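[agent] plan:
  1. take the single chain provided in the ticket
  2. run structure prediction with default settings
  3. attach structure tokens to the ticket
  4. add a short note for the reviewer (M.T.)
[agent] executing step 1
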Amino acid sequence: MTSRIVVVGSANLDIVVPVPHHPARGETVLGEDHVQVPGGKGANQAVASARLGGEVAFVGCVGGDSAGEVLRASLIDSGVDVTSLLTATDTPSGIALITVGPDGDNAIVVSPGANAALTSADVASVDSIRTAGVLQLQLEIPMDTTIAAAEAATGLVLLDPAPAPADGLPQRLLDAVDLLVPNETELALLVGRPVDPDSIDDIGSAAASLGVERVVVTLGSKGAVVIANNVVTRVDSPNIDAIDTTGAGDAFRSALAVGLAAGTDLVSAAQVAARVGAATALRFGAQPSLPTTAEVDELLR
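[agent] step 2 finished; step 3 output follows
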């Protein structure tokens, strides 16, 4: 059975600590009790796409440790095909250290672990990448591996350029991407200049300079901007009191993937994605917060 959506990316165990404020350089901050939850941009997006009704397969690598077992089980429990989830027996699974402030904003440090062991040869052997209707990518695995996956795809390639490289994206990757979905900070890094998040014209100009046919720039609580066919469209986000924004961006991008896989136009898919991202920020943790379609409407009542 061919998967309509294939996600190639990272799987991390998130260690999350609520804090009164994020620490400054050299500062120690006492936080609340930590929790350990499945995460990683790739795995989050696979789980989110599956919970939103997508038929999803995940391609990645975990370690031969207890964290790897937790990450694999979370994907399976969410209905994700893990046939192509590899195990690096001599490498620890990836972890992310996350502090969450009172306003729900987070700061994240990622130790890639087994994610760095996923190679171009690994993805070249996965037939579902070539046949996927939508391929979702991020940058928490080696760049060469991401490029190999993008170039192998025949369907729509959606790239979440995070973490954004300071020297921009390789041209080979940009040439293979059909839809780029940066946030406002990532957009500024990719174009090498500040971008005014309150100026739809500046956002549109910066996005157009990247040379990708379609771009959606996420703006957190301010919604998103869609740039396609030389038309720039603002998409609003519901007003909420965020609890934890950790998985909100992943949920937004996955809602886009599910909508596009179903044949929805990009602006309509982005409008739905803004609601999904907002609903995700109303619950704590990355994968535990990712909602089903029914839960989105319930959370935003």
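[agent] step 4 note for reviewer: Residues 5-11+41-90+116-299 form a domain with the UDP-N-acetylmuramoyl-L-alanine:D-glutamate ligase fold (CATH 3.40.1190.20).
[agent] ticket updated
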